[in-house]
Amino acid sequence: MPYLDDNLLVFTDLDGSLLDHHSYDWQPAQAWLDRLGSAKVPVILTTSKTSAEVATVQKQLQLTHYPFIAENGALIKLPADWPGNSDDVSGHIIGNSYSEIRQTLVSLRQRYDFEFRGFGDVSKQQVMDWTGLSLENAALAMQREASEPLIWFGSDFDLAHFEKCLQAENLSLTRGGRFWHVAGREAGKGSAVHWLTGQYRQQRDQPLVTIGLGDGPNDIGMLNATDYAVVILGHHDHAMPLDNGENVYRTRQHGPQGWKEGLDHFITL
Ligand SMILES: [Mg+2]
C-alpha cells in the first residue's frame, strides 16, 4: 500500500466519482484534496467532458497546474509550464482531431445515406434538448477537439455497416448512455493514463505509484492502467469487471464519499 510521501499520481473520473452524481458537490473529498495538494501529488481529472467543460471544474478544484484528460481519453491537456510544452501546443490528441473525424463522418453519410446527427450537425438548442444542459453548458459541450457524440436514427443493420466503415478509417464507435461516440481507435481513458504516466516517468527519478478512481464502465481502461484502483459504487447496473486482488478496492459509498473511502483504504499517511 502506498504512503502519501511516495511518488504518487492520482487519476480520477468526475461525475459520480469526485463529483456527486446529482449535486456535483465534492466536499467529502476536500480533506483528501488538501492533503494531496500539500504533498504535491498531481490529481488528474479524467473524464468524458470536453476541455472547455473541464476547465471550469479544474479551476474550482484548484488543480489548474496539473494536466487533465478530456473527451474520454481522446484528448490530454497540458499546463503551460509542462516540460517541452510550447505556447501553441497545449494538448495531445490520441487518434484523430475533431475536424478529421467530422470530415470522415460527413463523407460516409454522403456515400451511404447513414442516418445520424452529431453535435457538429445541429444547433445549441438541439444539444440542449438532447442533453438537458443549459444553453451555456451546451455550448461548452459542443467545443469538441477529438471525438464526436452522435444519435443514430437508422437501422441496426446500417449501424453495423457504419461501424465497419469507421474501423476502416481507424475510428471507433462506442456506446455511451444516449449517444454513440466516435473517436480514434486507440483513444480511451486507459491509453491516456499510460501516455501521461510515461510523461511523468521521464520527468521523475523515483518510481511512480498510480491510483485510479472511477464509477463507470468507461473508467475500466483507466482502472486497469493504474497500480491501485478504486471502483466507486455507481448509480447504474453495469458490471465493473476488474480483478478482485488487493490492488482493487470497491467502495460501499457513492461519489465523493466513496472517493474518500477509497483513498482512506489505500494511502497511508
Ligand atoms: Mg462517472
Describe the structure.
This protein is an alpha/beta fold. It has 9 helices and 12 strands. The protein has 2 domains: 8-93 and 188-266, Rossmann fold, CATH 3.40.50.1000; 98-184, Threonyl-tRNA Synthetase, Chain A, domain 2 (2-Layer Sandwich). It has helices at 30-38, 51-60, 98-112, 124-131, 135-141, 156-168, 189-203, 220-225, 255-266, and strands spanning 8-12, 43-45, 68-70, 75-77, 91-93, 116-118, 147-152, 171-175, 180-184, 209-214, 228-233, 248-254. The strands form 3 sheets. Strands 2-1-10-11-12 form a 5-stranded parallel beta sheet. A 4-stranded antiparallel beta sheet has the order 6-7-9-8, covered by helices on one side. It has a 3-stranded antiparallel beta sheet with strand order 3-4-5, with helices on both faces. β3 and β4 form a beta hairpin. The site of magnesium ion has 6 residues, from loops.
The residue-averaged pLDDT reads 94
Give the topology string: H per helix, E per strand: EHEHEEEHEHHEHEEHEHEEH
Rough shape? Answer: globular
Largest sheet: 5 strands, parallel
Low confidence ranges: none
Percent range for β-strand residues: 15-25%
Structural class: alpha/beta
Strand segment count: 12
Order of strands across the widest beta sheet? 2-1-10-11-12
Computed over alpha carbons, the radius of gyration is 19 Å
Main features:
35% helix; EC 3.1.3.70; mannosyl-3-phosphoglycerate phosphatase activity; metal-binding; Rossmann fold; Threonyl-tRNA Synthetase, Chain A, domain 2; 269 residues; HAD-SF_hydro_IIB; HAD-SF-IIB-MPGP; alpha/beta; 2 domains; binds magnesium ion
